[in-house]
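LAB NOTEBOOK - FOLDING QUEUE
OPERATOR: T.R.
BATCH SIZE: 2
PURPOSE: Compare the predicted structure-token outputs for two unrelated chains run back to back under identical settings.
PRIORITY: normal
REVIEWER: second-year student, initials M.K.

ITEM 1
FIELD SEQUENCE / FIELD STRUCTURE:
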Amino acid sequence: MNTADHSISGEVSTPAARRRPQPVQWDVVFFKVEEITFPVSPHRLIENSEVFAGMFHLPTSENQTAEGRDKEHPIMLEGYQASEFHALLRILYPTPRDLISGAWLEKEEWVGVLNLSTRWQMKEIREYAIKNLSQLSLSSVEKVVLARAHKVSKWLKEGLTEIVTENPICPLDELETLGLKTACRLLWIRDQSVSRKASSQGFDVTLGSLGCHNSNCQAALFSSSLNCQACHRKIAVDDPGAMHLASGCSVTINDSGTPGPGRGRLILNSQYLRCRYCTNLPINPQNYPCTSCGQQTSYSTFRLISPASRPNPSPHPSVDEVFKEEITSYESWDQ
């Protein structure tokens, strides 16, 4: 039998073959995180993490003591927190008590699991952590902060959209935690959304479209600009973006009983008006005299005359458009 035959069958062991490094068979491995040493059976780490799978399949020579084989030579996990590692182990190795009681982790522990599973490429564990955190009470700002720390596109879109649409907007100190650039972008989206907001009736309300309640009078009550009573910004008579109708507002169609084009009148309660800039009531709730017929019109019975019409504006900028590059970069982590 030639040497090639011996090599293929594996029946001959040369000195060189005996010295060849062999993969370590791990039963228990010791990790040291901060000041705590954790004895762990590594099979779940190997099954769920490409990082650990590569680590434990590294060969070692006969004369070399592999890190982690005993307490005196633990694998040092520098830059990690023991509390996060412990939380991850509870997910990988749940106790019967955990399974029976269903009492799993607190929010901060789930965040720790998300952090480690992301850094150690544990896809299924990462998805599980995201799922459980999504079921907890996360504020809009928390979603953005966690999304950026752990590359979660879903939370980034949800959090930014909630900040733009919530009323009132989140406190300034919370907004500042997102960074100046993000805060400016969000306020710009919000401003554009408000300024282009059409009423539920399909038209914009201007100061000049608020008319006398008298069915026989077609006069406008305001012929010159005024300042918002709340923020003191100028409201031009013909500016369709200066005011908008509050969400849920309804315009009443009033039948005067008199035949003619003025029989059906659109009546608006000015309490539903909102200033574009501060979102507060822009005009004083009082009676207004008509310079044409002399009658008084209550703030709750303005007649809408010649509502401002203009070409439909392009859709207002969205979070998906403004933050597209960042959102797209996180989506690759979910593949």
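ITEM 2
FIELD SEQUENCE / FIELD STRUCTURE:
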Amino acid sequence: MQLFVLLFLLAHLDVVTAVAGCHSDRDKDHRPQENCTAAGFSDVPAGLEPTTKVLLFPNNLFSSLSWSSFHIFKDIYEIDLTDNKVPDVTSSVSPVLPTLSVLRLSSNRLTALSDGAFSACPGLTELYLYNNAIDTLSDKSFSGLSKLEILDLTSNRIKSLPALMLHPLPAIETLYLENNKITVMPDNWFSQKEEVPYLYLSANPWACSCSLGYLRRYLDEYELNVYVRDGPIIKSDGESVVCDSPQRFKGTPVLTLEESDLCSPPTGAGPPGDLDLLFSSSCY
């Protein structure tokens, strides 16, 4: 009996202290997990159990993302690199991490996503990239992610949406684009999957001209799928998508405008401003 107790204690001690700065436990679904939060790591430390399925490295010092560093974890399910210093994501010629389902790269130093940036992990279902400085995307930034259901691009610097960006994402269910610099949505942007059940578009400087007609029609049909977040509170709000320009429409929900309003010249005795002339001319 004493031997059994001793072996139990030794095994438990090994789990807790195998790697200094990390703690072994299980996630909410009982997957084996290593929690290495704020431990000063700049790379994956040696000594972690290869059967680990969840790796938590938030608030560390990673300055690059090397897919091969995680290759020993054959059944890896989730990697959390939130709040590190990763400046880019490099594509891979092969699926290095085919079992990876959740990747968290929020609050890093990303500025752009190249073609096939996540080709190393084609099994992703959730991808979190909020609070970076991403200003450039391409039609193929998310190519190969046919299983992706959640994509969070909140609080970046995205100015334009590539026309075919959603085409590689037939399974997308939740798309966060809040708090960027997006002014226009390309025509037929949702053509690959017409209905996205949870869509977040608020806090963007939408330019309410003729070119926003497609978004106006989309909101009219799928108003109940547009949501906003206020802390932990999430609610449907189709009128959260508001105009930033021209001045006469500033603060007006896009959904309350008719398409004829978007293309109409300003009224009044004074001459139109340059911006209003630009919006009016885009109709022709």
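REVIEWER COMMENT (ITEM 2): The CA atoms of residues 227 and 236 lie 4 Å apart.
FOLLOW-UP: none requested
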